[in-house]
UniProtKB/TrEMBL annotation:
Protein name as catalogued: dTDP-4-dehydrorhamnose 3,5-epimerase
InterPro entries associated with the record: RmlC-like, RmlC-like_jellyroll, RmlC_Cupin_sf
Family: Belongs to the dTDP-4-dehydrorhamnose 3,5-epimerase family.
EC number: 5.1.3.13
Naturally occurring in which organism (per UniProt): Sphingobium phenoxybenzoativorans
Superkingdom classification of source: Bacteria
Active site as annotated: H62, Y132
Catalytic activity reported: dTDP-4-dehydro-6-deoxy-alpha-D-glucose = dTDP-4-dehydro-beta-L-rhamnose
Gene Ontology process terms (BP): dTDP-rhamnose biosynthetic process; polysaccharide biosynthetic process
Site (Participates in a stacking interaction with the thymidine ring of dTDP-4-oxo-6-deoxyglucose) location in chain: Y138
């Protein structure tokens, strides 16, 4: 596995190394030893699968406050999506900065999302499927969201319109109290 740094502190794009022969190929998409050697989280308690029928479906931006902040490893297993995260750690040098990466079934890349980041994606093709690992169980009391088109964050999404749930469309623009900035200081 190769771990490619991004402009955001602690965020990586993970590239699996493929080995193959005339029968096909093999890739390791998670290795506790290699993750630990890179200083990354190795304990995951959930594997989640998301299917989106239409291109332009937007999910997010979600995160969980302490005591349930999650690390995620996100991978597209069918179709294509543009995955974006926002650094919500107030002590980070990249606080309130965002980064996006295209994940496809063909490129097989994964996105390592540390604790303290809001996460979301938009599908680029119909019938897109995402698989991701989460280091914490879902906690509805700790769940928060950041509005996908918050002008303070200024994410440039690769779409003209979005298919978005009422819940995701109604998240608040960033404000320190609602988004739990005080609780995020220790991350």
């Amino acid at each position: 596995m190769k771990f490619h740094e991004t402009p955001l502190n602690g965020v990586y794009v993970i590239e699996p190394e493929q080995r193959g022969d005339s029968r096909g190929w093999f890739q390791r998409i998670f290795c506790e030893k290699e993750m630990a050697e890179a200083g990354l989280e190795t304990r995951f308690v959930q594997a989640n699968n998301s299917f989106n029928a239409e291109a332009g479906t937007l999910r997010g931006l979600h995160y969980q406050l302490p005591p349930s902040p999650e690390v995620k490893i996100v991978r597209c297993i069918k179709g294509a999506l543009w995955d974006v995260i926002v650094d919500l750690r107030p002590t980070s040098p990249t606080y309130l900065k965002w980064h996006g990466v295209e994940l496809t079934a063909e490129n097989r890349l994964a996105y390592y999302v540390p604790r303290g980041f809001a996460h979301g994606f938009v599908t680029l093709e119909p019938d897109t499927e995402t698989l991701y690992l989460a280091s914490e169980f879902y906690n509805p009391q700790a769940e928060r969201g950041l509005r996908w088109n918050d002008p303070k964050i200024g994410i440039t999404w690769p779409l003209d319109g979005a298919i978005i749930s009422e819940k995701d469309a109604n998240w608040q623009d960033f404000n320190e109290e609602y988004h739990g900035v005080e609780l995020m200081k220790g991350l």
